[in-house]
## 1
Amino acid sequence: MNIDDVPKHNLTKQNIIFEAVSHGDSPYRERRLTPEERDRKQRSDVMEAADRGDYKTAIALLSDLLHRHPNSAIDYNNRGLMYFQCDRTEEALADYNKALELDPRLDGAYNNRANCYAARGCLAEAIADYQIALDFNPGNLRAWINQGITYRDMGLYDLASENFDLVLVLGKRLKGRVYAERGRTYHLRGDWNLAIADYNRALEQLSNSFSSRRYKKQVRRWLGELQTCTIA
């Protein structure tokens, strides 16, 4: 499971909407908000919709934003992520490509497009896009993690572990994800004690957001697999 970017450094309350709004009948217009205030409000509502897993609403709201701002690379990138979350990879790829056409240095869009490639089994293309993201922004922790996951899917466990170790050195963010994915790498490599330790660290570090709750279930399944094997 790769980590999606909204770019999560870009899908923030400053860059990201709740209910689809039309130009003719908009609750924002009734409140007499300025265009800038309306955009900020919609992007905040998109963030809230995404956080609760309401991707259909987020897509509708981002589409409304793009109707008004057709040259917004960030909004294309963010809508692409919402499509990806709904398994609509063709539409996601189209939005990521458009985002990169508008802003060829948008590292989060390379990371997201790489996730699409990885989901389709195009691992070499995914590795290449993660590397471009990292060339533009070496501090993109999600790209480091996702590249590590893809290395692992290719059976390159040592390279995968190096990526995860590097993220732990680079910063404190996403530690729960890093421990879980490094644990999975140890698990598949046969280092079961190291895997169990990392899975437990991950469960301690992961938050209680919607996406983290789903991810915790996966980590518990992985941990359960090992505990069953060790008991047996």
Note: The domain at 1-129 is CATH 1.25.40.10 (Serine Threonine Protein Phosphatase 5, Tetratricopeptide repeat).
## 2
Amino acid sequence: MKPAYNFVAILCLAMLTLTGCNSSDNSDTAVAADDRWVELGERQYLLALPQSFDENKIYPLIMAFHFSGGSATAMAQLTRLHKLSDDYIVVYPQAQVEEWNEGCDCNKPARLKIDDVGFVDAILADMAARYKVDPDRVFATGYSQGGLFVQNLACKRSDVFRAVAVVSAPMSMQLASNCAPTNPISVLMIHAANDEVLPFNGLAHSNFGLIGSVEAAQLWAAHNQLQLDSEWQHLADDIRLRSSDGTDYKVTLYSPATGGHSWGFAGLDSSEEVLAFFAGH
């Protein structure tokens, strides 16, 4: 039965003006000639090495997951993480279908039993075989439905990922009820208060329920045995902040008042914030 909440269609419409939905073009101006597609069984990922890559150097790794209906190429073009820092190897994985298996047991990848967590495991093993990757500094970020998925990784692979960053996504209600990370993990969340695609305050739905971003941040703080600030700090450009800082781990939630469902916001560059957050770990 087709879900009543047509999530892919809504996200495609929301993203059309930014990147183009369901694009399969693997060549764009944000991907340098030295960056390449890597085949891994029946799956693939886009690999971006630092411009001054040194095969003898140990590098931290960032995995960046695209939005519903998007592509690895679109995520590279949107975030430009590999262009903004020469300190990381960046991998942009490609979903097998329109979405990632985010752990809600509610979407197409779940019905097809696509093992996206296993795909991530395979990428990490492939990267470790090819390059000198720092196993203590492996990070993941995701936009929109990709942001829902990286929280699935945080729940299931907290022993692998040092920190994750979520942009324009709260958290799946089903995942929140089953999330059991084995290790502390730092989490950055950036989510506009007026997001109408994946609402900041969550969504009551029989199939695709979402908890709000504040509740999600509180959940991650509790997993780290921390307490999220009870009050908002009001920053410039109508941006609010709530956080919980521990000695080694932290949870940070930025909420711009406007900007809707987007990667970037006035007064807050998500790519720069993600890189700064990871650099602190």
Note: DSSP finds nine helices and twelve strands in the chain.
